[in-house]
Design goal:
The chain is α+β, with helices and mostly antiparallel strands. It has helices at 21-35, 74-85, 113-126, 158-162; strands at 11-13, 44-52, 57-61, 91-100, 131-135, 141-145. It has a single domain (11-151), classed as Cytidine Deaminase, domain 2 (3-Layer(aba) Sandwich), CATH 3.40.140.10. Helix 3 links the parallel strand 4 and strand 5. The protein starts with 10 loop residues before the first strand and ends with a helix. Bound molecules: tetrahydrodeoxyuridine (THU).
């Protein structure tokens, strides 16, 4: 028997001062995306902004539904749109933010488990790490290189992915 330990590494920034202009732009776009979310049930509006390798920025936000499970998180809206419409491009970076009129969002918003699994598959397919920026309506920013870090012992049945 042996015991394994998993270490998680990410940067914590108190403000924008140490971030580059692309990172700041992406965080601003994610907030803009959050402001256009359709979240009448939770009042928790999430925005995701993806930076592609050709410089294009893709926005997604959560889309809820009266039949609750039918809705979708901001991250998956953005990633699936990218998969559907920009198949050949790689994702360099993703910024995730949230705003709410009912709960405190002044802290980094970290993606749900299903979104981690979905984002990771895009990262595995493109074989280049995606930088993840996480922030709330304001406050600290977490920066992490590689979605892989968010999901230790992730499900990765490569044979299934490649259809072999
Ligand atoms: N939500 C996201 O859009 N992304 C996440 O990573 C977590 C949660 C959405 C789903 C739902 O519309 C609302 O936030 C409250 O859970």
């Amino acid at each position: 028997m042996n015991t394994q330990h998993v270490a998680l590494e990410y940067e914590v920034h108190d403000n924008f001062s140490e971030l580059n202009s692309k990172e700041i732009e992406l965080l601003k776009k994610a907030l803009e995306a959050a402001s256009n979310a359709y979240a009448p049930y939770s009042q928790f509006s999430v925005g995701a902004a993806l930076l592609l390798d050709d410089g294009e920025i893709i926005l997604g936000n959560n889309q809820e539904n009266g039949a609750y499970p039918s809705g979708l998180c901001a991250e998956r809206v953005a990633f699936f749109w990218k998969g559907a419409n920009r198949k050949e491009n790689k994702i360099i970076m993703v910024a995730i933010r949230a705003i709410s009129s009912v709960v405190d969002t002044a802290h980094p918003i970290t993606p749900c488990g299903s979104c981690r699994q979905v984002m990771l598959e895009y990262e595995l397919n493109q074989a280049e790490p995606i930088t993840l920026l996480m922030q709330g309506s304001s406050g600290q920013i977490y920066k992490m290189k590689g979605i892989k870090n968010l999901l230790p012992l992730y499900f990765n049945e490569e044979g299934l992915r490649k259809g072999s």
